Amino acid sequence: MEGLKVSDANLVVYVHPSKAKKVSEAILRELGSLLFKFSETFNGVLLAYDVNILSEVAKILPGIHPYLGVRLKAKLLLFYPKPDMLLEGKVVKLGQQSIHVIVLGFSSAIITEDDIREEFKYKVKHGQEVFVSTSHKRHKIEVGTVIRFLVKSFDEEILHISGSLVPAHTGNVCWLDKNLEDWSHNDRSTKKRRESEWREEMEEQHDKVMTDGETFSLNTDCQIKKPKRLRSSEDS
């Protein structure tokens, strides 16, 4: 899935003097408060971190309420969905006009009727709502299905995604992963067959030469007839 990255960061965490004896705890608490929130500093949503405190010797910053500046290195796991990225999520609700998805267990996404390709038709089977492909009957989307969809937009404040199932490579992840391999194999077979046919055609054309609209064989064992005018001039 796209939209995830690991970033190495050099940070300075500001700790209140009252926490001077428990600097490590204060740093972890500060970083913990940033989890599952969009950060403009990191340009993404912080999902996890691994911290290496360079030194607990802090620099006192001047001010009315002086803070301690602690330098550290951190490895950050960030979620940063951008338009046209492919994400995966679990369907938690669907209806005739929309499909609702949860991504990574915390970010909600919606795919509206206009962004569901015509191939998928809404049906109710045995009391359950489902979208079924008219091209491939085994390609279904229902509650509990993990789907792959395209990002249209991302609301950084409420962590809400607007998605699309219009592209052909979106839909039920299990079905796509199985059948895209078959399609790829078929495409390769078709390409090889076309190349073979093309080579055969070129070999056939190689045995012929077009001159003044007439086709002459290049086989030297066969005598080419001379035009009547040319024969009469030679006979004379």
Describe the structure.
Keywords: DNA-directed RNA polymerase, Nucleus, Transcription. Residues 186-211 have a biased composition (Basic and acidic residues). This protein is of the alpha+beta class. The chain folds into two domains: 4-79, 2-Layer Sandwich (Dna Ligase, domain 1); 85-175, Beta Barrel (OB fold (Dihydrolipoamide Acetyltransferase, E2P)). Helix content is 22%, strand content 42%. It has three helices and 16 strands. The chain has helices spanning 23-32, 173-206, 228-235; strands at 4-15, 38-39, 44-53, 59-60, 68-79, 86-94, 98-103, 107-112, 120-125, 128-133, 140-142, 146-155, 160-164, 171-172, 208-211, 214-217. The strands form four sheets. Strands 1, 2, 3, 4 and 5 form a five-stranded antiparallel sheet that branches. A five-stranded mixed β-barrel has the order 6-7-8-13-12. The termini are far apart. Residues 208-226 and 230-234 have low confidence and may be disordered.
